[in-house]
Write a structure and sequence with these properties.
Blueprint: E1 3-7, E2 10-13, E3 18-25, E4 34-39, E5 46-51, E6 58-60, E7 68-73, E8 78-83, E9 92-98, E10 119-120, E11 124-129
């Protein structure tokens, strides 16, 4: 059974930083496109960042570009999201996600779509106070 678990969320002040981590059992990240999503109350789930299987390419939502960094360590079967210069509007539940197949088309500009990802963690709450 596939289980993905996020950690690292919490309460921070605006301008602060957080590092989210994601690990999994029953699934290897190797060769798989990975992503981070978030959902705030009253809003649609938003793709935040994604990373190509080899880690050479990344894709960010406009709201995250320049502030967030997605990375991976396949040797540790881990995915990370380093968030800096946090804003109150970053407050949301953050989810890590994996595609259900290896390879696939990776775009550095196309919208990051929830429908492209089949495995999800339970989410970790990030709250940014003003």
């Amino acid at each position: 059974q596939v289980q993905m678990v996020e950690s690292g969320g919490g309460l921070v002040q605006a301008g602060g930083s957080l590092r989210l981590s994601c690990t999994a059992s029953g699934l290897t990240f190797r060769g798989v496109i990975m992503g981070w999503f978030r959902q705030a109350p009253g809003k649609e789930r938003e793709g935040v960042a994604s990373i190509s299987p080899d880690g050479d390419d990344t894709n960010y939502a406009d709201s995250a570009e320049g502030r967030f960094t997605i990375s991976r360590d396949d040797g540790k079967n881990a995915l990370f999201l380093q968030m800096t210069s946090l804003k109150p509007e970053d407050t949301a539940v953050y989810y890590c996600a994996a595609r259900t197949y290896r390879g696939g088309i990776f775009s550095i500009t196309a919208p990051i779509k929830s429908a492209d990802f089949g495995y999800w963690g339970q989410g970790t709450q990030v709250t940014v106070s003003s």
